[in-house]
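USER:
Class, as today's exercise, take the chain set out below, and explain how the chain folds.
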Amino acid sequence: MKKIVFMTGYSGAGKSTLTDYVVGKYRFGYVSFRDTTREVAESQGYTHIDYIEKVDNKIIFQQVGDAITDKIKAQETHNTLIDGLYHLPYVEKIQEDFPDRQTLIVSVQADKNIRAARMKARNPNDKSALNDIDYLDNYKDSIGIKEVISHADYLLVNNVDITAFSRETDLFVEKLNAGRIKP
């Protein structure tokens, strides 16, 4: 059965690292919520931020959901990984559009101090990585990430180095392909 895997988690947890690894090694299709939202906003003459602030959420869910559906349909892969899920209505939309595919939510988590260190490594001149983590965590909490995480079908904890995380990711994909992860 074809699968659509939604990735969720706080900044610095390792979602993009996991996504890059799985897409590269296992040839999953890939869709980014952030990039798709930005593309939809720009197609309508908005900046990303203005679109989110000025357009009704129901319209955003429909428009961005339609764009994600189109991207999945255009892919020639067996499985698709969607990075950056922060709102459950997208899962419901994709399930309606692809009733023949199994949908799963995977939550990638890491300790806050580890996430802050990763954010600092990405931006070494930024002295406020922990403050940025607080701001980003609060923002994601305000838009519903806790609810999404509470619905996760699988949890990957990433408090380790990249080699160990790659092994954990390989085990996840092995279980996924064997049908041992159920929604």
